[in-house]
Design a protein that fits this description.
heterotrimer; A alpha/beta (300); B mainly alpha (70); C mainly alpha (263); B: 70 residues; mainly alpha; 4 helices; 0% strand; C: 263 residues; 11 helices; elongated
Chain lengths: 300, 70, 263
């Protein structure tokens, strides 16, 4: 059973469709990324999951073990978290914990623990109005986690941060994977590749690609050869066109990019190819395409 | 002039003391709050002048409009 | 979820302590309450000393009655007092909505009823405490300097006026929950209160049985100790309206979507 499953989830705003009947299934205990460019409908999707927006159509089902108000099992960090500036960091997290139903003592000890976890143990007594962007983001994660939710939903958790803050939050997310399931949205492929196990790629309100990171990498990352020779390669390429290990060729005079099925066979055959040697090899490089290519293809 | 001085002597000071004290309390609290905050809506020095020189209404105006709720 | 209500209420209370609302609003009401009897007491003196009246003019101002002074106090409360209360609380929900703190609260398993009623009760406690403190001071000085009137008349009048405050403050809360701009909330609330007062003044027959007559009834208690027919209808209509506004607001608030549309 999945933690959350949506069927035909749709959201329309005055006629324009922001999310078009998407089916998401979020697995428990892992980190899932919702990847897509701005305006793809990621935030709208997350808002429907948290209950802050009502779907126009479709259903959201939570794991049957967790019945009742879905919000009890969710922690949420919006893209721009806003806090009561007159509270201290600790006061805010205690407040959030108590709202979620923790007793006064439990709220206090959990809040302290969470602030420690996100690295705000010392800043806890400072007024939130004096917090930096990175501190607010970490406070946001602390308040989202404080009631031990089954799933935390993070909306673009790193995109507003500077490189250092970004690093910190990504490391924190890796650490959190051991505690709870994570669903986060991002428009940066690298962030998704770095921390997530499952990826959903969204575009114009629809999911265009989905699967586990490993599966996507296996499917979409192919071994590639970059070959450069002194002489033009067009004729030689004609001779290998029929090989069953070859998938795709791109040639530009004396430079060629070969995408292949099987790295081993391809390498052995290519290196023993007499005709190729006669073209006077300058460069022979083995690489893998990154998901970037897939991402760019999808986003076009 | 003598009449005015006389009239001041006639004023029942214990009677109006509460008004003066409370006005002062209002002013001081507004002033402390204004100075303690780094940011106000509009220039801080103007608010300080308003609080100090506009009797009764100055502090109220500050609390209603000058204070920035962050 | 009673305990959650208390948590939300405590948050309101603490917020109003930290931003000094609990200090300055009661102080303003006490000052307003003090000024009315004291200026009434000195008005003759002041006119005589500073009025620049020609020498020899004999001042024959009839001394104001106690009921007159208390009515005057409520007049101050209805003008400056209401202005202060409405402006101070117009943002109670709107600001949280617009700043984005609201979604951070509502994404927790928070009942909307708790959220709104906690704010409502806090708002009423602060306004009514300010009113009572200010009015008690006014009564004390009126009795001391001007004239006494039976305490039961004073209490009855004050209770009726307290209901009028409750009514207006309920409008502030409801509009703050439903509208999207603080200026709108203040404008609509004060507009409603002013319309009620004007119509009650110039067309009392038309306004019989509405909240608009409450201030008039409290004056009648001060002057006469009894009220005209239609009093109880006004009371029940006002209570009914308060209840209806709260229920409607909670209902509409439940249906609202608070996440801002970024598309």
């Amino acid at each position: 059973m999945h933690l959350i499953e949506t069927i035909g989830l749709t959201k329309k705003f005055n006629g324009t469709v922001a999310v078009k009947g998407i089916n998401l299934s979020i697995r428990e205990g892992i980190c899932t990324a919702l990847l897509g460019p701005n305006g793809a409908g990621k935030t709208t999707t997350l808002n429907m999951l948290t209950g802050l927006m009502n779907p126009t159509e479709g259903s959201i089902d939570f794991h049957e073990d967790y019945s009742g108000d879905r919000r009890k099992y969710l922690g949420y960090l919006p893209q721009y978290p806003k806090f009561f500036g007159w509270m201290s960091g600790l006061e805010y997290v205690v407040f959030a914990a108590e709202l979620a139903g923790l007793s006064k003592e439990a709220a206090k000890s959990r809040a302290k623990e969470m602030l420690e976890l996100v690295g705000l143990a010392e800043g806890g007594n400072k007024k939130v109005s004096g917090f930096s962007g990175g501190m607010k983001q970490r406070l946001g994660i602390a308040q989202a986690l404080v009631h031990e939710p089954k799933l935390i939903i993070l909306d673009e958790p790193v995109s507003a941060l500077d490189p250092i803050g970004r690093r910190e939050v990504l490391e924190l997310m890796k650490q959190l994977k051991t505690r709870t399931s994570i669903l986060f949205s991002t428009h940066v492929l690298h962030d998704a590749e770095e921390v997530s196990d499952d990826i959903f790629i969204m575009k114009k309100g629809e999911i265009v690609v989905e699967g586990s990171l490993v599966k996507l990498q296996n499917t979409y990352q192919q071994p590639t050869f970059f070959i450069e020779t002194e002489m033009e390669m067009a004729n030689w390429l004609e001779t290998i066109k029929q090989k069953e290990w070859l998938r795709h060729v791109k040639v530009d005079k004396n430079k060629a990019t070969l995408t292949v099925e099987n790295l081993q066979t391809a390498r052995t055959e290519l290196l023993s190819d007499k005709t190729l040697q006669e073209l006077k090899l300058i460069k022979f490089e083995v690489a893998k395409t990154s998901l970037e290519d897939l991402f760019m293809k999808v986003m076009k | 002039m003598n009449e005015i001085i006389e009239s001041f002597q006639e004023v029942n000071w214990p009677l109006i003391a509460p008004i003066l004290i409370l006005s002062l309390v209002l002013m001081i609290v507004a002033l402390i709050d204004c100075i303690k905050h780094d940011k106000t809506n509009g220039p801080q020095w103007i608010w300080i002048l308003v609080i100090v020189f506009v009797n009764f209404f100055g502090p109220i105006l500050y609390f209603l409009f000058g204070r920035r709720n962050d | 979820m009673r305990s959650q209500w208390i948590i939300l209420f405590k948050k309101e209370f603490r917020e109003s302590i930290r931003n000094f609302k609990w200090l300055w609003i009661p102080t303003v009401f006490v000052l307003l309450g003090l000024m009315q009897p004291i200026t009434s007491y000195y008005i003759a003196d002041i006119l005589e000393q500073f009025g620049g009246l020609p020498e020899g003019t004999v001042m024959e101002l009839p001394p104001p009655s106690g009921a007159e002074v208390l009515t005057g106090t409520l007049g101050q409360f209805s003008q400056i007092g209401f202005l202060v209360l409405v402006l101070a609380f117009m943002g109670t929900v709107v600001t949280e909505k617009n700043q984005g703190t609201l979604i951070m609260v509502l994404v927790k398993p928070v009942s909307y009823v708790n959220y709104l009623t906690a704010k409502w009760v806090h708002l009423l406690i602060l306004s009514l405490t300010s009113f009572v403190l200010g009015f008690v001071m006014s009564v004390y000085y009126t009795f001391l300097l001007i004239d006494t009137i039976p305490i039961s008349q004073v209490v009855n009048g004050a209770l009726v006026y307290a209901l009028w405050i409750t009514f207006v403050m309920t409008i502030v809360l409801c509009l703050s929950a439903l509208l999207n701009s603080t200026a709108f909330v203040a404008f609509a609330t004060l507009g409603t209160a002013i319309l009620f007062s004007i119509f009650s003044l110039y067309a009392p027959d038309l306004m019989k049985g509405t909240p608009g007559m409450l201030a008039t009834y409290s004056q009648q208690f001060f002057y006469l100790g009894e009220v005209e027919s239609g009093f109880w209808i006004s009371i029940f209509v006002t209570l009914g309206l308060i209840l209806a506004m709260m229920i409607a607001t909670i209902f509409l608030f439940n249906k609202k979507e608070f996440a801002k549309d970024v598309q």
